[in-house]
Amino acid sequence: MRWFVGMDDTDVVGAPQGTGKVARFFGGALPEGWRCLGVVRQQLLVDPRIPYTSHNSAACVVLEGEGEKEKPGELLATLGAAHLGAFALPGSDPGLCVAPEGHPALKLLGDFGERALREVLSQDDAREAAREVHLSAHGGTGDGIIGAAAAVGLTAAGWRGRCISWGDLRELPEAVPVEELERRGLRVVWLERDAFSVPPGALIRGGGWFRPFLLGGSPVLLVHREEDGTFRTVPGKERIQRNDRKREG
Length: 249
Known about the structure:
The protein is an alpha+beta fold. Helices cover 26% and strands 26% of the residues.
C-alpha cells in the first residue's frame, strides 16, 4: 500500500539543505517493512504575498508499507514529526501531512493542491482540506502545513511534480541505456512529431541527473533526440540561480 508524506518549509535563507533534501533524508531512514519509492517536488504559486524561502516548492515522500497492523498512519506521523524536529532549521515553519492511497480525503487534497498552484491559501484552507487525515505544524508560524497538504494532494493525484529521487536514479551515470531505465520502473517517452518508441540500446542522457515527471502516478522521462543519435531528458537538472526571500524571525 502506498502512503504519501508531505513536508514543507523546513529551511531558511542560506541553509545548506532545503525541504527536498530533508524529505529525501526521511525516505532513507525508514523502519523495517517500509520502503521509499521516491520523493516528488511540487512547485506551488510564487507570489509576493507568500513568505517562501527560494522557490515555494514542497516535497512529498512516496512510500510503500506493510505495517497495517501497526496503525501505519500514526506511525508515519510520529516518525515524520521526529524527523522534522531533528532536521528542520530554526526560523523555519515546518508542516507535515500524511495520507494513504485510496483515502476519500485525497480528492479534497488534490483540489486544494490545484488551488495552491494559482491562489494564496491559508492554514485554515489546508486544515479543511486535510480534516480526515494527519496534518500538523512543527514550529514557527506553522505555514508549512499549506505546502505539505498541497504536496500530498498533487502527488497522490499523479499528474504533477518532478521526482527529485526515485529508486536509485541519483546514483546513475550521465548516460544510461533505455532498457536499464525501464528495468528500474521508468517510462521513457520521445517528444517529437511522428516519434516512435525510443529504440533498444539508445543512450539516455540526464543532463546532471535524472528527474522524471510524475505522470499517471508513475515516473516518466520525456526525451528528445540529439544530433549524435543519443537522447536527452527534457529538461535535465535545472540549475536555477537562487533568489532567496523569507519572512524575518
